[in-house]
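Researcher: Let's run the pair from yesterday's discussion. Sequence first, then tokens, for each.
Model: Starting with the first of the pair.
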Amino acid sequence: MPRLAYTNGRITPARRATVSIDDRAYLFGDGVYEVSAFFDGTAFDWPMTLERLKHSRDELRIAAPMSDAALTIAVRRLIAKSRVRTGLVYLQVTRGAAPREHAFPKDAVPGLTMTVRPYDFAAQPAKQRVGVSAITVADERWARCQVKSVALLANVLAKQEAKERGAFEAVMVGRDGAVTEGSSTTTWMVTADGTVVTRPLSNDILPGVRRRRLLQLLEDDGIQVEERAYTVEEAASARELFLSATSTTLMPIVTLNDAPVGTGKPGPVSLRACDLLWREIERQTGWRPPST
């Protein structure tokens, strides 16, 4: 459990933090969120996180609880007071508290809560060299997945199915048979000729911050990248598959629905992408896992 929480302007011990029972995030899932990784106290790709938070708020017409500059100061203060050097900060912005009525309330004040918790990023390189398993599930989410909404029940059910089947992630598949994304990750495929493929941005997927950064890193490294839809059959026969997300960073998939992906081991493109991302984290924050 996080040690401290920021709740509408106050930092308190997390166990004492409270929000109104009439908050619309609780009543309707009427809120958005962000998760940002920080290393040695420095948030990674923070400007991208702020951009996506604004995009999600704008999509749902939720007012900003404060300016970006003030929010950045508040996040830094919470991280410093929490005495966590490397971890994750979770931010949630809601439409605010109001009597339960579906239409937007006129005078509700946007709510802002934040928590910080440590996260063992140093353990990830060893996991990346082994890889993880994934399953496929039907994508049963709402039609505006580009919004980072707190209403994540379909994602929760997909992740739980993966857990019950002994897998790390559930790769969601739309009605057209095309892969959309993972329950909490962006999915990537490597074709036989070494081209990295990921689904283009649309209402079907979240615009991942790691996705955005990786596209740039891969292209700068001379790796061919293609943004297009691909079927679950293509994914099953791909040379490599991998996942990206804020907490996952980047993780090769070595089995899909219990069948090996490629050689059944993390491939060279996936591992190169891991290295590129760790180098970028080091460039921005000065932190690098000791085992890389």
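Model: Moving on to the second of the pair.
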Amino acid sequence: MKSLLLPPHPKERRIVFKNAWTQGYTPDIECYLKDGGYEELRKALAMKPAEIIDEVKKSNLRGRGGAAFPCGVKWGFIRHDDGKPHYITCNGDESEPGTFKDRYILNNDPHQLIEGMAIAAFALNVHLAYIYIRCEFTKSAGIVTKAIEEAKAKGFLGKNILGTGFDLEIYVHQGAGAYICGEETSLIESIEGKRPYPRIKPPYFPAVLGLYMSPTIVNNVETLCHVKQIFKLGSEEYSKMGTPGDGGTRVMCVSGDVMRPGPYEIPVGGVTLGELINDVCGGMKPGRKLKAIIPGGSSSKVMRAGEVYKMKVKGPDGEMIEKDVPLLDITMDAASLAAAGTMIGSAGVIVMDDSRSMLWALNNLNTFYAHESCGQCTPCREGVLWIDKMTTRMVNGEGIAQDPITLKNVADNIAGRTVCAFGEAASWPVQSFLEKFPEEFAVGAK
């Protein structure tokens, strides 16, 4: 990832990644304090919890884990008169293919996460929180554990934080490395020591019945780091960086067939897909043309080069008008990508050039989802394995003419018929690849 060693691109604004790639910056607390670390926690502890939640709402911060749900609204679901303990669980599992941002924060700037969690904990009356890290991130778990110990030694965690009477303990919990634990209720089940089967919602909305059947907020690493940045910049300035209803920056993880792959922190709505690929990432590899883009991690629907989308955009007088928007002119934000029929998800942008077989690419994803299904729901347990077997057979030149039709039927009967969104995550690639590249699947079915 050579781009990580380069200075920020002009379209970037590094706030969450500000220290992660500064030469000489280390993850220890002394380095963090020299850069003004934990000053935002001091500010927050002098405020009322309701004021903190209101600031997060006004910032228009949306979750950076996939669903893009407004963070402050999510926090507002917690009742403060229920008499139950409250919990925060930080999702550091980061298992979505095409996504590779949170691990750099855990490794290079863990105190930013701890400070953001402490601010959130004070706002939500939380005294026990967990950072859930997948077992493959052994280095990350060690660095974060050390950072927690450093923060406790300096009085930023533990009993009577900064003399305010507020107590908070944070623990690292290592999972077994399961994609399903990216789903918040599965993550909660795993922390409780159970098989990570997703819970049915309702009634098990985490903000009502979460960890240990108590109110729980689940946010991912990047989201909680942004909480610290909101108090550093102020909610008004933070919200202005993005688009209406979607403030701040996003770390976009660009992988695949571009000249400069890597994570880039860009204000929300600050680039189109074309600008991201051709300007920020240096364009396609020599002699190659763009073929497809998966814009939000492997579970988001694929987009085909050359497509034009009918979308509602602001006209010259501010009114909303319908307009034909070419693929590369689509703004890289949640609302625009949703209007185009896909999603920003975790902002894991996978770029494929004209050397790529779409049948091979889909089979690669199908094999992943077949391996990662938790097996709780029959449509998913049986369906994703069936899909994987079919595309594997097609890749090997052993497909039959009926396979594309069967693939779509199976995918259609998984999506919307499972306890959690894994069914959609496994089905949407199949549905969209078949729709966007039918000729490649017809060739594969001999």
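Researcher: Give me one sentence on the second I can quote.
Model: The first helix runs from residue 29 to 34.
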